[in-house]
Design a protein that fits this description.
By secondary structure, the chain is α/β, with parallel strands linked by helices. The chain has one domain (22-63, 77-259): Ribonuclease H-like superfamily/Ribonuclease H (Nucleotidyltransferase, domain 5), CATH 3.30.420.10. It contains 6 helices and 9 strands. The protein has helices at 23-39, 111-129, 151-164, 182-194, 203-211, 238-242; strands at 44-49, 53-54, 86-94, 99-105, 135-140, 167-172, 220-226, 246-248, 256-259. Strands 1, 2, 3, 4, 5, 6, 7, 8 and 9 form a 9-stranded mixed beta sheet that branches. Helix 2 (111-129) runs parallel beside helix 3 (151-164). It is globular and about 65 Å long. Mean pLDDT is 86; it is low at 72-77.
Length: 264
């Protein structure tokens, strides 16, 4: 087989689904909006939920330097420990500051959890960095807890807008392009490299590993534990949804919209 040009190779993740005809147009729209916000000194954050991780003495992918022939010993089986469960790390990455926040949850990745994570970032980091801004831009995937179709996501953003008095612009990446979201390769990838080969034995260990993550470009990350329980399947009624003060853009308003403070 080798003589005929074959070699053993693993699968490579490259296909994310079918391309939308306006894929490149949406990339250009996001890029132009991002430049405009940054040029005006307004924050642009990239958000997403990182892969859920088992908490406990489990094998973690990658290799780490250890004494020769003395690897870290971990559990043989990856059955979830009912006492420790899984962690749900939701991240916020500030494009201008090259800084991030990770809200390490223990419950579910819901729209309420996603916006709560953004709110915590704003309270702990964002408001100190941008004390006088009236607008903020969020780039997010089109699915998951921050789905472009989620009524609850929009309603929670409305609450955040009302609390802060800020106008919130949201731009979603088109279907099948989640890996283009800046947080993936500017923050999450470095977290994964930093904790490679290290068992995630506790919530505090996860927070410490995230907080110790650095990059050659000066990346800084803070993290905290979110012990709140987020209920799954919350519904937003038509009446509640129509109260959202949302303004859709002319170009793919289902992906691009602004939510402004309201009196409701």
């Amino acid at each position: 087989m080798k003589r005929q040009g074959y070699s053993l190779q693993a699968n490579r993740k490259t296909h994310e689904g079918g391309d939308h005809p306006d894929r490149d147009g949406q990339f250009e729209f996001i890029n132009n909006q991002t430049k405009s916000y940054l040029n005006n000194g307004q924050p642009v954050i990239s958000v997403d939920c990182k892969k859920k991780e088992l908490i406990g003495n489990y094998k973690n992918g990658g290799k780490e330097w250890e004494v020769k022939k003395e690897p870290v010993e971990v559990n043989v089986y990856d059955f979830m420990d009912k006492e420790f469960g899984k962690t749900v790390p939701y991240g916020i990455y500030d494009l201008y500051k090259n800084e991030g926040w990770v809200n390490v949850g223990i419950s579910r990745d819901t729209a309420k959890f996603a916006v709560s994570s953004i709110r915590t970032w704003w309270e702990q980091m964002g408001s100190q960095c941008y004390p006088n801004v009236k607008e903020i831009m969020i780039t997010a995937d089109g699915g998951g807890s921050n789905s472009s179709r989620s009524r609850l996501w929009k309603m929670e953003i409305q609450k955040f807008s009302n609390e802060t008095g800020m106008q919130v612009r949201v731009c979603h990446f088109p279907p099948g392009t989640s890996k283009w979201n800046k947080i993936e390769h500017r923050m999450f990838s470095f977290i994964s490299m930093n904790w490679r080969g290290k068992p995630l034995v506790s919530l505090q260990a996860i927070v410490n590993l995230i907080g110790a993550t650095k990059s050659s470009s000066g990346l800084k990350i803070k993290a905290s534990i979110d012990e709140n329980i987020y209920e799954k399947g919350l519904k937003v009624s038509d009446e509640e949804f129509h109260k959202i003060n949302i303004e859709k853009d002319g170009f793919h308003g289902e992906w691009n919209y602004v939510i402004k403070p309201s009196d409701e």
